[in-house]
Write a structure and sequence with these properties.
Blueprint lengths: L1 H27 L30 E2 L22 E2 L2 E2 L9 E7 L8 E3 L9 E10 L5 E3 L3 E5 L20 E2 L12 E8 L6 E5 L9 E3 L9 E13 L10 E2 L6 E4 L10 E5 L12 E4 L5 E7 L8 E8 L5 H13 E4 L6 E6 L8 E8 L4 E6 L6 E5 L6 E9 L3 E9 L2
Parallel strand pairs: 14-19
Antiparallel strand pairs: 1-5, 2-3, 4-13, 5-11, 6-10, 6-13, 7-12, 8-9, 8-11, 15-17, 16-18, 18-19, 20-21, 21-24, 22-23, 22-25, 25-26
Length: about 425
């Protein structure tokens, strides 16, 4: 008997490891959020300690024969942030930021270029953003901050120290001349990708004559130039779905990762809650580790700066391996259940292709985003459908749960919009 117990424990542990591996793999394969590599300039090349030029990983000049004239101030020999050779400035996030020259009367222009994590998708809307602030050594402030997204033809450019007026940037600053030398100012915009863009290029793509300027520093600075600090570059799909992770099972005392990998641009868009408390957030990041002690449901609200419609997702973390088979069955049930229409107005139709899967589910409950129970009633699927009246519900987001005495609950989210 003792050997049988040991065998059972070992097999259960193996099953837990296998399931954990599967769920972590599914999380790892979640959709790319920020397409920009090294968006906050935190990862430096080994040469950064010897040469401040060409110091940030995944960032480079057009022409390999020329130095890229930007550098990381978190690395020597320029000194540690916030004390820089061109002034005093804290990074917006992290420990590093970059410097580039976007305007100069009689000296070169600079265009930092990033190779994106993935070629952009055709006919897809993207939200682009990066932050700038003037250095204290600027003689002039300018208005022409932009971002260009291009394909392999950019590899043919051999003279990039001059105004690249023949490139038409998809993102242009529309806020006028930026004079701030203290606060980080966002350069933002949206565009529709062609589908072959693999580079993001930052800079001023206008001629000197077409660039609006304003004197901001003392006349002792004789060079008419605009040196700018850059930080927190992001490129995110406009309709990126929220991602809380896959429902998973974990032994009490073990850890599990929720959501997607933290990154610039997406972290600030995500707020996490633990049901039933939808008032007090537990974190503001794209993803994080938890060490659960009891089964719980976690909710993420994602609100991108460029999209007024928030997106939601939920994940259930079970703390017992012995519910594994039921979880598989619940996943099948959830996949076979559809809500229509969603958003709804006066009714919501629950449809299933296999009523046998739902024969054990005999009650239905509706909760609001605060976790308060709005209504509970019996449910019977006739002709593969069940009609739920919603004419008494106000506009908003709700959670619908079907309960089975043996299997547990299946949850779906729906929206009322009139």
């Amino acid at each position: 008997m003792l050997n049988k117990i040991k065998y059972s424990i070992i097999n259960t542990s193996k099953l837990a490891l296998i399931l954990s591996g599967i769920f972590l793999s599914l999380n790892a394969k979640s959709q790319i959020a920020n397409y920009v590599n090294n968006p906050s300039f935190e990862t430096a090349l080994p040469s950064a300690t010897m040469n401040p030029f060409d110091a940030a990983k995944f960032w480079a000049a057009f022409d390999s024969l020329n130095n890229i004239s930007y550098y990381l101030f978190g690395k020597p020999p320029l000194g540690a942030v916030p004390y820089c050779s061109t002034g005093f400035q804290y990074p917006r996030t992290g420990k590093n930021f970059a410097l580039s020259q976007f305007f100069c009367d009689n000296c070169p222009r600079e265009y930092p270029r990033n190779r994106l994590k993935q070629v952009l998708k055709p006919n897809t809307v993207y939200c682009a953003k990066y932050y700038v602030v003037n250095t204290n050594n600027n003689r002039v402030a300018i208005d022409s901050y932009a971002a260009y997204f291009g394909n392999s033809t950019l590899d043919t450019i051999t003279h990039s120290m001059v105004p690249l007026t023949y490139l038409n940037p998809q993102i242009q600053n529309t806020a006028g001349i930026i004079t701030d030398t203290l606060n980080w100012i966002p350069i933002t915009g949206t565009f529709v990708a062609i589908g072959d863009e693999k580079y993001m290029v930052l800079g001023n793509f206008k001629s000197n004559a077409a660039t609006n300027t304003l004197l901001i520093n003392t006349p002792t600075l004789t060079t008419m130039s605009n040196d700018v600090y850059i930080d927190d570059v992001s490129l995110i799909e406009f309709d990126l779905p929220a991602f809380a992770g896959r429902d998973t099972i974990v032994f009490p005392g073990n850890s599990v990762f929720l959501g997607r990998e933290p990154d610039i641009g997406i972290d600030e868009a995500c707020i996490w809650y633990k049901l039933p408390d939808m008032v007090n957030p537990i974190d503001t990041v794209a993803g994080f580790w938890i060490n659960p002690t009891a089964t719980a449901t976690y909710v993420v609200k994602q609100q991108l700066w460029c999209n007024n419609t928030p997106k939601w997702d939920t994940v259930v973390v079970e703390t017992s391996i012995y519910v594994g088979l039921n979880k598989v069955r619940l996943s099948v049930v959830e996949g076979a259940l559809e809500l229509y229409p969603n958003p709804a107005q006066d009714f919501l139709e629950l449809k299933t292709s296999n009523p046998n899967l739902l024969k054990e589910f005999n009650s239905i409950s509706i909760y609001n985003t605060l976790g308060a129970l709005i209504r509970k009633e019996e449910v019977v699927f006739e002709n593969k459908t069940f009609i739920l009246k919603t004419n008494d519900l106000e506009n908003g987001v709700y959670f619908l749960t079907l309960k089975s005495n043996n299997l547990g609950t299946v949850s779906k989210r729906f929206v009322i919009s009139r």
